[in-house]
Amino acid sequence: MTISELRKKFISGEYTPMEAVAEAKAVISEKDGDIHAYLDVYDDAEEMAKEATARYQKEGGNTPPLCGVPLAIKNNILIAGKRATGASKILDNYIASYDATVIKRLRDAGAIFIGSTNMDEFAMGSSTENSAYGPTRNPIDQSRVPGGSSGGSAAAVAMSSVPAALGTDTGGSIRQPASYCGLVGLKPTYGAVSRYGLMAMGSSLDQAGTLTNSVEDAETLFNVIAGRDPHDMTTISGETYGVAPTKDTYTFGVPRAFLGQGVDADVMERFESHLDELRAAGHRIVDIELPLFEAGLAAYYIVMPAEVSSNLARFDGIRYGVRKEGKDLLETYLNSRADGFGAEAKRRILLGTYVLSSGYFDAYYGKAEALRGKMRDELNAAFAQVDLVVTPTAPTPAFKLGEKSDPLSMYRQDIFTVPVNLTGVPALSIPMGEVERDGVSLPTGVQYIAPHGGEARLFDIGRKVYDAKRYNNG
Protein backbone atom coordinates (compact mmCIF):
# COMPACT_ATOMS: atom_id res chain seq x y z
CA MET A 1 0.00 0.00 0.00
CA THR A 2 0.98 3.61 -0.44
CA ILE A 3 1.27 5.99 2.51
CA SER A 4 -2.06 7.60 1.62
CA GLU A 5 -3.78 4.21 1.40
CA LEU A 6 -2.31 3.12 4.74
CA ARG A 7 -3.41 6.31 6.45
CA LYS A 8 -7.00 5.93 5.23
CA LYS A 9 -7.11 2.42 6.68
CA PHE A 10 -5.61 3.61 9.97
CA ILE A 11 -8.20 6.38 10.29
CA SER A 12 -11.09 4.03 9.52
CA GLY A 13 -9.80 1.44 11.99
CA GLU A 14 -9.70 -1.20 9.27
CA TYR A 15 -5.96 -1.63 9.82
CA THR A 16 -3.63 -0.50 12.61
CA PRO A 17 0.00 0.61 12.88
CA MET A 18 0.61 -2.46 15.08
CA GLU A 19 -0.53 -4.68 12.22
CA ALA A 20 1.53 -2.69 9.71
CA VAL A 21 4.72 -3.15 11.74
CA ALA A 22 4.02 -6.86 12.26
CA GLU A 23 3.48 -7.32 8.54
CA ALA A 24 6.62 -5.34 7.70
CA LYS A 25 8.75 -7.50 9.96
CA ALA A 26 7.14 -10.66 8.59
CA VAL A 27 8.10 -9.62 5.04
CA ILE A 28 11.65 -8.81 6.17
CA SER A 29 11.92 -12.19 7.92
CA GLU A 30 10.66 -13.98 4.82
CA LYS A 31 12.58 -12.13 2.10
CA ASP A 32 15.56 -10.23 3.44
CA GLY A 33 17.78 -13.26 3.92
CA ASP A 34 18.03 -13.32 0.12
CA ILE A 35 17.66 -9.59 -0.65
CA HIS A 36 19.78 -8.09 2.17
CA ALA A 37 18.06 -4.71 2.02
CA TYR A 38 18.50 -4.12 5.77
CA LEU A 39 21.54 -3.80 7.98
CA ASP A 40 19.50 -3.49 11.18
CA VAL A 41 15.84 -4.07 12.05
CA TYR A 42 14.76 -2.07 15.10
CA ASP A 43 13.24 -3.73 18.13
CA ASP A 44 11.46 -0.57 19.32
CA ALA A 45 9.21 -0.30 16.24
CA GLU A 46 6.42 -2.16 18.07
CA GLU A 47 6.46 0.38 20.90
CA MET A 48 6.20 3.23 18.39
CA ALA A 49 3.36 1.37 16.65
CA LYS A 50 1.52 0.90 19.95
CA GLU A 51 1.67 4.65 20.58
CA ALA A 52 0.48 5.41 17.03
CA THR A 53 -2.40 2.94 17.30
CA ALA A 54 -3.55 4.62 20.53
CA ARG A 55 -3.36 8.03 18.84
CA TYR A 56 -5.61 6.91 15.99
CA GLN A 57 -8.13 5.50 18.45
CA LYS A 58 -8.17 8.84 20.26
CA GLU A 59 -7.56 11.42 17.51
CA GLY A 60 -8.59 9.73 14.23
CA GLY A 61 -7.80 11.91 11.24
CA ASN A 62 -6.29 14.65 13.43
CA THR A 63 -3.05 12.69 13.84
CA PRO A 64 0.13 13.93 12.10
CA PRO A 65 0.51 13.09 8.39
CA LEU A 66 2.81 10.05 8.82
CA CYS A 67 1.42 8.72 12.08
CA GLY A 68 1.96 4.97 12.22
CA VAL A 69 3.59 4.71 8.78
CA PRO A 70 6.59 2.32 8.73
CA LEU A 71 9.67 3.72 6.98
CA ALA A 72 13.15 2.38 6.21
CA ILE A 73 16.12 4.73 6.61
CA LYS A 74 19.44 4.64 4.76
CA ASN A 75 22.28 3.80 7.15
CA ASN A 76 24.13 7.10 6.62
CA ILE A 77 21.29 9.07 8.27
CA LEU A 78 21.67 9.32 12.05
CA ILE A 79 18.98 8.00 14.39
CA ALA A 80 19.76 8.54 18.08
CA GLY A 81 20.72 5.32 19.82
CA LYS A 82 20.96 3.32 16.59
CA ARG A 83 24.01 1.95 14.79
CA ALA A 84 25.12 4.19 11.92
CA THR A 85 27.93 2.68 9.89
CA GLY A 86 27.57 4.18 6.42
CA ALA A 87 28.07 0.50 5.43
CA SER A 88 31.77 0.87 6.29
CA LYS A 89 33.89 -1.24 8.61
CA ILE A 90 35.53 1.92 9.93
CA LEU A 91 32.25 2.81 11.70
CA ASP A 92 31.20 -0.72 12.56
CA ASN A 93 30.73 0.09 16.27
CA TYR A 94 29.38 3.65 15.97
CA ILE A 95 26.09 4.47 17.71
CA ALA A 96 24.47 7.78 16.76
CA SER A 97 24.16 10.26 19.63
CA TYR A 98 21.48 12.45 18.04
CA ASP A 99 18.75 12.50 15.40
CA ALA A 100 19.36 13.96 11.97
CA THR A 101 16.98 16.84 11.23
CA VAL A 102 15.05 14.72 8.72
CA ILE A 103 14.61 12.03 11.40
CA LYS A 104 13.38 14.55 13.96
CA ARG A 105 10.84 15.87 11.46
CA LEU A 106 9.67 12.36 10.60
CA ARG A 107 9.33 11.57 14.31
CA ASP A 108 7.26 14.72 14.80
CA ALA A 109 5.04 13.59 11.92
CA GLY A 110 4.47 10.23 13.63
CA ALA A 111 6.58 7.95 11.40
CA ILE A 112 7.81 4.56 12.64
CA PHE A 113 11.38 3.52 11.81
CA ILE A 114 11.51 -0.17 10.90
CA GLY A 115 15.24 -0.37 10.32
CA SER A 116 18.32 0.92 8.53
CA THR A 117 19.13 -0.07 4.98
CA ASN A 118 22.24 -1.27 3.21
CA MET A 119 24.15 1.04 0.88
CA ASP A 120 27.42 1.50 -0.96
CA GLU A 121 30.11 2.43 1.56
CA PHE A 122 29.70 6.10 2.51
CA ALA A 123 27.31 6.35 -0.48
CA MET A 124 30.10 5.68 -3.00
CA GLY A 125 28.69 3.53 -5.76
CA SER A 126 25.89 2.80 -8.20
CA SER A 127 25.04 -0.79 -7.30
CA THR A 128 25.15 -1.36 -3.49
CA GLU A 129 27.93 -3.87 -4.14
CA ASN A 130 30.45 -1.71 -2.26
CA SER A 131 28.95 -2.31 1.20
CA ALA A 132 31.31 -3.76 3.82
CA TYR A 133 28.39 -6.00 4.83
CA GLY A 134 27.74 -7.58 1.44
CA PRO A 135 25.64 -6.57 -1.58
CA THR A 136 21.91 -6.01 -1.81
CA ARG A 137 19.98 -7.86 -4.52
CA ASN A 138 17.19 -6.50 -6.71
CA PRO A 139 13.84 -8.00 -5.56
CA ILE A 140 12.64 -8.11 -9.19
CA ASP A 141 15.58 -10.29 -10.28
CA GLN A 142 17.94 -11.39 -7.53
CA SER A 143 20.79 -11.93 -9.97
CA ARG A 144 20.82 -8.16 -10.53
CA VAL A 145 21.74 -5.07 -8.53
CA PRO A 146 19.10 -2.72 -7.08
CA GLY A 147 21.17 0.32 -8.02
CA GLY A 148 23.07 2.51 -5.62
CA SER A 149 24.06 3.95 -3.41
CA SER A 150 20.54 3.88 -1.90
CA GLY A 151 19.96 0.35 -3.16
CA GLY A 152 18.97 -0.99 0.25
CA SER A 153 16.24 1.62 0.62
CA ALA A 154 14.98 0.92 -2.91
CA ALA A 155 14.97 -2.84 -2.31
CA ALA A 156 13.14 -2.39 1.01
CA VAL A 157 10.27 -0.64 -0.79
CA ALA A 158 10.36 -2.88 -3.87
CA MET A 159 10.03 -6.04 -1.76
CA SER A 160 6.99 -4.48 -0.01
CA SER A 161 8.44 -4.38 3.50
CA VAL A 162 7.65 -0.65 3.80
CA PRO A 163 5.63 1.81 1.70
CA ALA A 164 8.51 4.30 1.53
CA ALA A 165 12.13 4.88 2.48
CA LEU A 166 14.64 7.68 2.85
CA GLY A 167 17.84 7.74 0.83
CA THR A 168 20.52 10.23 -0.10
CA ASP A 169 21.42 11.42 -3.59
CA THR A 170 24.87 12.79 -4.44
CA GLY A 171 24.96 11.97 -8.15
CA GLY A 172 21.83 9.91 -8.77
CA SER A 173 21.83 7.61 -5.74
CA ILE A 174 18.04 7.83 -5.28
CA ARG A 175 16.88 8.21 -8.87
CA GLN A 176 18.95 5.37 -10.37
CA PRO A 177 17.82 2.76 -7.78
CA ALA A 178 14.25 3.99 -8.29
CA SER A 179 14.65 3.31 -12.02
CA TYR A 180 16.12 -0.17 -11.44
CA CYS A 181 13.43 -1.16 -8.91
CA GLY A 182 10.34 0.38 -10.53
CA LEU A 183 9.83 3.14 -7.94
CA VAL A 184 9.40 6.91 -7.71
CA GLY A 185 12.63 8.63 -6.65
CA LEU A 186 12.92 12.30 -5.64
CA LYS A 187 16.13 14.32 -5.46
CA PRO A 188 15.15 17.76 -4.04
CA THR A 189 16.62 21.16 -4.77
CA TYR A 190 19.98 21.55 -3.02
CA GLY A 191 19.25 23.11 0.37
CA ALA A 192 15.55 22.26 0.40
CA VAL A 193 16.22 19.43 2.89
CA SER A 194 18.67 19.73 5.79
CA ARG A 195 21.89 17.71 5.66
CA TYR A 196 22.37 17.94 9.45
CA GLY A 197 22.88 14.40 10.70
CA LEU A 198 23.71 12.95 7.27
CA MET A 199 27.18 11.48 6.85
CA ALA A 200 28.84 13.86 4.43
CA MET A 201 30.18 12.49 1.18
CA GLY A 202 30.09 15.45 -1.21
CA SER A 203 28.86 18.41 0.82
CA SER A 204 27.92 20.58 -2.15
CA LEU A 205 26.11 17.68 -3.84
CA ASP A 206 24.39 15.57 -1.15
CA GLN A 207 20.63 15.73 -0.60
CA ALA A 208 18.28 13.49 1.34
CA GLY A 209 15.27 12.37 -0.67
CA THR A 210 12.58 9.74 -0.97
CA LEU A 211 11.83 6.36 -2.56
CA THR A 212 8.11 5.64 -2.81
CA ASN A 213 5.42 3.81 -4.76
CA SER A 214 3.64 6.99 -5.85
CA VAL A 215 4.35 10.64 -6.56
CA GLU A 216 1.71 11.59 -3.99
CA ASP A 217 3.75 9.82 -1.31
CA ALA A 218 6.95 11.54 -2.44
CA GLU A 219 5.21 14.89 -2.03
CA THR A 220 3.88 13.94 1.41
CA LEU A 221 7.33 12.97 2.66
CA PHE A 222 9.02 15.99 1.05
CA ASN A 223 6.60 18.38 2.75
CA VAL A 224 7.53 16.83 6.10
CA ILE A 225 11.33 16.81 5.76
CA ALA A 226 11.86 20.04 3.78
CA GLY A 227 12.49 23.49 5.20
CA ARG A 228 15.06 25.76 6.77
CA ASP A 229 17.19 24.34 9.58
CA PRO A 230 19.39 26.45 11.91
CA HIS A 231 21.81 23.50 12.09
CA ASP A 232 22.45 23.69 8.32
CA MET A 233 23.22 27.10 6.89
CA THR A 234 22.80 25.85 3.30
CA THR A 235 19.08 25.22 3.83
CA ILE A 236 16.47 27.39 2.17
CA SER A 237 12.76 27.86 2.71
CA GLY A 238 9.89 27.96 0.25
CA GLU A 239 9.61 31.71 0.69
CA THR A 240 13.17 32.40 -0.38
CA TYR A 241 13.26 30.85 -3.83
CA GLY A 242 10.98 31.06 -6.83
CA VAL A 243 8.72 28.03 -7.03
CA ALA A 244 8.00 27.19 -10.66
CA PRO A 245 4.24 27.48 -11.20
CA THR A 246 2.20 24.47 -12.25
CA LYS A 247 0.35 24.42 -15.58
CA ASP A 248 -2.30 22.40 -17.37
CA THR A 249 0.24 21.42 -20.02
CA TYR A 250 4.02 21.71 -20.13
CA THR A 251 6.79 22.18 -22.65
CA PHE A 252 9.46 19.48 -22.26
CA GLY A 253 13.02 19.90 -23.47
CA VAL A 254 14.83 16.80 -24.77
CA PRO A 255 18.65 17.14 -25.00
CA ARG A 256 19.02 14.84 -28.04
CA ALA A 257 22.81 15.05 -28.39
CA PHE A 258 23.24 14.28 -24.70
CA LEU A 259 21.06 11.17 -25.07
CA GLY A 260 23.56 9.65 -27.49
CA GLN A 261 25.65 8.59 -24.50
CA GLY A 262 25.33 4.81 -24.68
CA VAL A 263 21.62 4.34 -24.01
CA ASP A 264 20.43 0.78 -24.69
CA ALA A 265 18.22 0.64 -27.80
CA ASP A 266 15.17 -0.76 -26.00
CA VAL A 267 15.50 1.79 -23.18
CA MET A 268 15.56 4.53 -25.81
CA GLU A 269 12.49 2.97 -27.42
CA ARG A 270 10.66 3.12 -24.09
CA PHE A 271 11.74 6.75 -23.72
CA GLU A 272 10.35 7.66 -27.16
CA SER A 273 7.09 5.91 -26.25
CA HIS A 274 6.93 7.99 -23.09
CA LEU A 275 7.40 11.17 -25.12
CA ASP A 276 4.53 10.04 -27.35
CA GLU A 277 2.35 9.65 -24.25
CA LEU A 278 3.23 13.18 -23.18
CA ARG A 279 2.31 14.53 -26.64
CA ALA A 280 -0.98 12.61 -26.57
CA ALA A 281 -1.78 14.26 -23.22
CA GLY A 282 -1.36 17.71 -24.81
CA HIS A 283 2.19 18.50 -23.74
CA ARG A 284 4.77 19.95 -26.13
CA ILE A 285 8.13 18.28 -26.83
CA VAL A 286 11.06 20.28 -28.21
CA ASP A 287 14.73 19.42 -28.76
CA ILE A 288 17.23 21.48 -26.78
CA GLU A 289 21.01 21.72 -26.59
CA LEU A 290 22.91 21.13 -23.34
CA PRO A 291 26.46 20.62 -24.66
CA LEU A 292 28.19 21.19 -21.32
CA PHE A 293 26.11 18.46 -19.68
CA GLU A 294 28.09 15.96 -21.72
CA ALA A 295 31.15 16.96 -19.66
CA GLY A 296 29.18 16.73 -16.42
CA LEU A 297 30.32 13.21 -15.55
CA ALA A 298 33.99 14.20 -15.86
CA ALA A 299 33.43 17.29 -13.69
CA TYR A 300 31.52 15.25 -11.13
CA TYR A 301 34.36 12.76 -10.74
CA ILE A 302 36.67 15.65 -9.90
CA VAL A 303 34.42 17.65 -7.56
CA MET A 304 32.94 14.68 -5.71
CA PRO A 305 36.23 12.85 -4.89
CA ALA A 306 37.75 16.16 -3.76
CA GLU A 307 34.92 16.61 -1.26
CA VAL A 308 35.13 12.92 -0.30
CA SER A 309 38.84 13.31 0.47
CA SER A 310 38.08 16.21 2.80
CA ASN A 311 34.99 14.73 4.46
CA LEU A 312 36.45 11.27 5.11
CA ALA A 313 39.57 12.69 6.75
CA ARG A 314 37.64 12.72 10.05
CA PHE A 315 37.50 8.91 10.10
CA ASP A 316 40.90 8.27 11.62
CA GLY A 317 40.39 5.66 14.37
CA ILE A 318 41.05 8.27 17.04
CA ARG A 319 37.80 10.03 17.95
CA TYR A 320 35.20 7.39 17.10
CA GLY A 321 34.75 4.26 15.05
CA VAL A 322 37.07 1.29 14.64
CA ARG A 323 40.66 1.71 15.88
CA LYS A 324 43.61 -0.44 14.74
CA GLU A 325 46.56 0.14 17.06
CA GLY A 326 50.04 0.87 15.78
CA LYS A 327 53.39 1.61 17.37
CA ASP A 328 52.65 5.35 17.27
CA LEU A 329 49.88 7.78 16.42
CA LEU A 330 50.68 7.88 12.70
CA GLU A 331 50.72 4.11 12.37
CA THR A 332 47.43 3.84 14.28
CA TYR A 333 45.94 6.37 11.90
CA LEU A 334 47.25 4.54 8.82
CA ASN A 335 46.21 1.10 10.09
CA SER A 336 42.69 2.25 10.97
CA ARG A 337 42.06 3.81 7.57
CA ALA A 338 43.74 1.03 5.57
CA ASP A 339 41.68 -1.64 7.31
CA GLY A 340 38.48 0.36 7.72
CA PHE A 341 37.88 1.68 4.20
CA GLY A 342 36.91 -0.46 1.22
CA ALA A 343 38.41 -0.33 -2.27
CA GLU A 344 36.00 2.24 -3.76
CA ALA A 345 36.35 4.60 -0.80
CA LYS A 346 40.15 4.40 -1.06
CA ARG A 347 39.99 4.99 -4.81
CA ARG A 348 37.96 8.18 -4.37
CA ILE A 349 40.06 9.45 -1.46
CA LEU A 350 43.20 9.05 -3.55
CA LEU A 351 41.67 10.72 -6.59
CA GLY A 352 40.30 13.58 -4.50
CA THR A 353 43.58 14.15 -2.70
CA TYR A 354 45.37 14.25 -6.06
CA VAL A 355 43.08 16.87 -7.66
CA LEU A 356 43.35 19.06 -4.55
CA SER A 357 47.14 18.83 -4.33
CA SER A 358 49.53 21.67 -5.08
CA GLY A 359 50.10 22.03 -8.80
CA TYR A 360 46.89 20.24 -9.76
CA PHE A 361 44.19 22.20 -7.92
CA ASP A 362 43.76 24.83 -10.66
CA ALA A 363 44.19 22.35 -13.49
CA TYR A 364 41.47 20.01 -12.25
CA TYR A 365 39.33 21.14 -9.33
CA GLY A 366 39.27 24.81 -10.32
CA LYS A 367 38.26 24.00 -13.88
CA ALA A 368 35.58 21.55 -12.75
CA GLU A 369 34.03 24.18 -10.50
CA ALA A 370 34.15 26.73 -13.33
CA LEU A 371 32.40 24.26 -15.62
CA ARG A 372 29.79 23.72 -12.92
CA GLY A 373 28.92 27.42 -12.98
CA LYS A 374 28.62 27.41 -16.76
CA MET A 375 26.37 24.32 -16.58
CA ARG A 376 24.01 26.25 -14.29
CA ASP A 377 23.91 29.10 -16.80
CA GLU A 378 23.27 26.66 -19.64
CA LEU A 379 20.41 25.02 -17.75
CA ASN A 380 18.87 28.37 -16.79
CA ALA A 381 18.93 29.36 -20.45
CA ALA A 382 17.12 26.12 -21.31
CA PHE A 383 14.47 26.81 -18.67
CA ALA A 384 13.77 30.14 -20.32
CA GLN A 385 12.49 28.07 -23.27
CA VAL A 386 11.01 24.95 -21.61
CA ASP A 387 9.23 24.06 -18.36
CA LEU A 388 11.01 20.76 -17.71
CA VAL A 389 13.94 18.81 -19.11
CA VAL A 390 13.35 15.09 -19.66
CA THR A 391 15.85 12.22 -20.06
CA PRO A 392 16.01 8.52 -19.28
CA THR A 393 17.05 8.12 -15.65
CA ALA A 394 19.73 5.55 -16.51
CA PRO A 395 21.08 4.30 -19.85
CA THR A 396 20.32 0.65 -19.01
CA PRO A 397 18.04 -1.43 -16.79
CA ALA A 398 19.49 -3.10 -13.69
CA PHE A 399 22.69 -4.98 -14.54
CA LYS A 400 23.95 -8.26 -13.14
CA LEU A 401 25.84 -8.46 -9.86
CA GLY A 402 29.56 -8.29 -10.67
CA GLU A 403 28.95 -7.19 -14.27
CA LYS A 404 30.44 -3.70 -13.92
CA SER A 405 33.84 -4.66 -12.53
CA ASP A 406 35.46 -1.77 -14.41
CA PRO A 407 34.94 1.42 -12.31
CA LEU A 408 34.55 3.62 -15.42
CA SER A 409 31.77 1.38 -16.73
CA MET A 410 30.02 1.72 -13.37
CA TYR A 411 30.45 5.50 -13.31
CA ARG A 412 28.74 5.85 -16.70
CA GLN A 413 25.49 4.61 -15.20
CA ASP A 414 25.17 8.08 -13.62
CA ILE A 415 25.64 10.08 -16.81
CA PHE A 416 22.09 11.52 -16.85
CA THR A 417 21.78 12.09 -13.12
CA VAL A 418 25.02 13.80 -12.04
CA PRO A 419 24.34 17.11 -13.87
CA VAL A 420 21.32 17.59 -11.61
CA ASN A 421 23.48 17.47 -8.47
CA LEU A 422 26.18 19.66 -10.00
CA THR A 423 23.62 22.37 -10.78
CA GLY A 424 21.55 21.98 -7.59
CA VAL A 425 18.14 21.65 -9.25
CA PRO A 426 15.45 19.08 -8.32
CA ALA A 427 14.63 15.96 -10.31
CA LEU A 428 12.09 13.15 -10.15
CA SER A 429 12.40 9.63 -11.57
CA ILE A 430 9.22 7.69 -12.31
CA PRO A 431 8.75 4.29 -13.98
CA MET A 432 8.37 4.51 -17.78
CA GLY A 433 7.89 0.86 -18.76
CA GLU A 434 9.84 -2.37 -18.92
CA VAL A 435 12.45 -4.02 -21.09
CA GLU A 436 13.36 -7.69 -21.22
CA ARG A 437 16.68 -9.23 -20.21
CA ASP A 438 17.21 -12.99 -19.97
CA GLY A 439 13.47 -13.60 -19.99
CA VAL A 440 12.80 -11.16 -17.12
CA SER A 441 10.88 -7.88 -17.49
CA LEU A 442 12.94 -5.13 -15.86
CA PRO A 443 11.74 -1.60 -15.09
CA THR A 444 13.21 1.55 -16.56
CA GLY A 445 12.81 5.15 -15.43
CA VAL A 446 12.28 8.58 -16.92
CA GLN A 447 13.82 11.61 -15.24
CA TYR A 448 12.10 15.01 -15.07
CA ILE A 449 14.36 17.95 -14.22
CA ALA A 450 12.78 21.19 -12.95
CA PRO A 451 14.14 24.69 -12.30
CA HIS A 452 15.57 25.55 -8.88
CA GLY A 453 12.81 25.21 -6.29
CA GLY A 454 10.50 23.54 -8.81
CA GLU A 455 9.37 20.54 -6.73
CA ALA A 456 5.69 21.53 -7.08
CA ARG A 457 6.01 21.29 -10.85
CA LEU A 458 7.63 17.85 -10.57
CA PHE A 459 4.86 16.58 -8.30
CA ASP A 460 2.20 17.99 -10.61
CA ILE A 461 3.47 16.33 -13.78
CA GLY A 462 4.31 13.14 -11.87
CA ARG A 463 0.75 12.82 -10.60
CA LYS A 464 -0.61 13.47 -14.08
CA VAL A 465 1.51 10.95 -15.95
CA TYR A 466 2.21 8.29 -13.33
CA ASP A 467 -0.16 8.35 -10.35
CA ALA A 468 -3.22 8.74 -12.54
CA LYS A 469 -2.21 5.69 -14.57
CA ARG A 470 -1.21 3.71 -11.48
CA TYR A 471 -4.49 4.25 -9.65
CA ASN A 472 -6.59 3.70 -12.78
CA ASN A 473 -4.89 0.33 -13.14
CA GLY A 474 -5.80 -0.53 -9.54
From TrEMBL:
<dbReference type="GO" id="GO:0030956">
    <property type="term" value="C:glutamyl-tRNA(Gln) amidotransferase complex"/>
</dbReference>
<dbReference type="InterPro" id="IPR000120">
    <property type="entry name" value="Amidase"/>
</dbReference>
<feature type="domain" description="Amidase">
    <location>
        <begin position="26"/>
        <end position="458"/>
    </location>
</feature>
<keyword id="KW-0648">Protein biosynthesis</keyword>
<keyword id="KW-0547">Nucleotide-binding</keyword>
<dbReference type="GO" id="GO:0050567">
    <property type="term" value="F:glutaminyl-tRNA synthase (glutamine-hydrolyzing) activity"/>
</dbReference>
<dbReference type="Pfam" id="PF01425">
    <property type="entry name" value="Amidase"/>
</dbReference>
<dbReference type="InterPro" id="IPR020556">
    <property type="entry name" value="Amidase_CS"/>
</dbReference>
<protein>
    <recommendedName>
        <fullName>Glutamyl-tRNA(Gln) amidotransferase subunit A</fullName>
        <ecNumber>6.3.5.7</ecNumber>
    </recommendedName>
</protein>
<keyword id="KW-0436">Ligase</keyword>
<feature type="active site" description="Charge relay system">
    <location>
        <position position="149"/>
    </location>
</feature>
<dbReference type="GO" id="GO:0006412">
    <property type="term" value="P:translation"/>
</dbReference>
<comment type="subunit">
    <text>Heterotrimer of A, B and C subunits.</text>
</comment>
<feature type="active site" description="Acyl-ester intermediate">
    <location>
        <position position="173"/>
    </location>
</feature>
<dbReference type="InterPro" id="IPR036928">
    <property type="entry name" value="AS_sf"/>
</dbReference>
<comment type="similarity">
    <text>Belongs to the amidase family. GatA subfamily.</text>
</comment>
<feature type="compositionally biased region" description="Low complexity">
    <location>
        <begin position="143"/>
        <end position="152"/>
    </location>
</feature>
<feature type="region of interest" description="Disordered">
    <location>
        <begin position="129"/>
        <end position="152"/>
    </location>
</feature>
<keyword id="KW-0067">ATP-binding</keyword>
<dbReference type="GO" id="GO:0005524">
    <property type="term" value="F:ATP binding"/>
</dbReference>
<comment type="function">
    <text>Allows the formation of correctly charged Gln-tRNA(Gln) through the transamidation of misacylated Glu-tRNA(Gln) in organisms which lack glutaminyl-tRNA synthetase. The reaction takes place in the presence of glutamine and ATP through an activated gamma-phospho-Glu-tRNA(Gln).</text>
</comment>
<feature type="active site" description="Charge relay system">
    <location>
        <position position="74"/>
    </location>
</feature>
<dbReference type="InterPro" id="IPR004412">
    <property type="entry name" value="GatA"/>
</dbReference>
<dbReference type="InterPro" id="IPR023631">
    <property type="entry name" value="Amidase_dom"/>
</dbReference>
